[in-house]
Amino acid sequence: MVDTNTYIKQLKDTYPLRASVLRDIIQALRLPLGSRGLDAGCGIGLQALLLAEAVGSTGHVTGLDISQEFLLHAEGVVNESSLSDQISFQQGDVSNLPFDDDTFEWVWSADCVGYPAEEQALPLLKELARVVKPGGTVAILAWSSQQLLPGYPLLEARLNATCSAFIPYFDGKRPETHFSRALGWFHEVGIEDSIAQTFVGDVHAPLSDGMRNALILFFQMLWGEPQPGVSQEDWAEYQRLCAPDSPDFILNCPHYYAFFTYSMFRGKVPR
Questions:
Q1: Which residues 6+ apart lie within 8 Å of 91 measured at CB?
Q2: Residue 118 belongs to a domain with what CATH number?
Q3: pLDDT 10s digits, 209-252
Q4: Half-sphere exposure of residue 156, counting CA atoms within 13 Å on the CB side?
Q5: Nearest to residue 160, comparing CAs of 208, 229, 216?
Q6: Rounded to the nearest 5°, which phi and psi values hold at 42?
Q7: Terminal CA-to-CA distance of the chain, rounded, Å?
Q8: CB 52 within 8 A of CB 79
Q9: How far apart are CA 46 and CA 218, in angstroms?
Q10: Cβ distance 42 to 14 under 8 Å?
Q11: Would you say 269 and 136 are in contact if contact means Cβ atoms under 8 Å apart?
């Protein structure tokens, strides 16, 4: 288990890889200028900044997270920005939001509700919808795939299947609890006009130092802890390609290209 300080550093250091596509996703929501919304499971506040940009100077974003350590870091991040007057934070549990019914015009939850597989997704989604005004938007988002080892699709598929960081969450779960089934969750809790969209982020050489470091961290986060099912051959190949001190380190490839996807599910609270 990664300690909180290490996880905060991982979130910060991998953000250069994700920032551009997250901004595109939030722009696709077309949040009303001047609206008030909730970032449920806001983490260290990086997406709250993007949401505040989207709603403009007269809008407001409330970030909520159960971790006091995350919120302290988020407050520092926001206070260093020009958007501090538009963002506030509150500690709380997504399963029991400390807000009245119909408080917000929209709610956003990224890599939190239902991710990557969640037996309790329906009550969590219902709780998000409770605090949104009729006609308002509920949106949940999660990382959904990656191709980070160009030229090695079979190896990457086996790594994902046998030693991915997600395996403990998927093992033994019912298919309908997986995040990709979220349209069904929206239907069950009565959220209307639901749609699904997948957004692609990509990166290619030449890599900046920040992007290079972000990719190294992602290799470690995704595959750094082998599961019993990984073969010795695949583990050796992973280390050959993904260890920065390896002569065959894949990020040294002059024509490196990779992509990843985020999937978003959104709908409207009934009027």
A1: 64, 65, 66, 68, 71
A2: 3.40.50.150
A3: 999 999 999 999 999 887 788 999 999 999 999 999 999 999 99
A4: 16
A5: 229
A6: -75, -10
A7: 43
A8: no
A9: 18
A10: no
A11: yes
The parent domain of residue 129 ranges over 4-268
Report H helices in the chain. 4-29, 46-55, 68-79, 121-130, 153-163, 167-170, 182-189, 209-223, 232-242
- Helix (H/G/I), strand (E/B), else coil: 136: strand
Instruction: Enter the tokens of residue 84.
Output: 């501090």
Q: Which residue has the tokens 């969590």?
A: 124
Distance CA 161, CA 61 (A): 38
For residue 14 the two structure tokens come to 């991998």
Question: Each residue of 109-127: b (16+ CB within 10 Å) or e?
Answer: bbbbbbbbbbeebbebbeb
- The conformation of residue 207, written as its DSSP 8-state character, comes to P
Q: Please provide the average confidence, as pLDDT, over all residues in the chain.
A: 93
Show the tokens assigned to 227: 């599961």
Nearest to 198 by CA among 266, 129, 258, 105: 266
Tokens of 29: 């929501």
Residue 230 sits at φ, ψ, to 5 deg, of -80, 135
Q: Sign of dihedral through CA atoms 70, 113, 28, 135?
A: negative
CA-to-CA separations, 134 to 58, 106, 138, in angstroms, rounded = 21, 10, 11
Q: Is the pLDDT of residue 167 over 70?
A: no
With tokens 């949940």, the residue in question is 140
Query: Each residue of 42-68: pLDDT tens digit?
Result: 999 999 999 999 999 999 999 999 999
The structure tokens listed for 35 are: 């609206």
How many domains does the chain divide into? 1
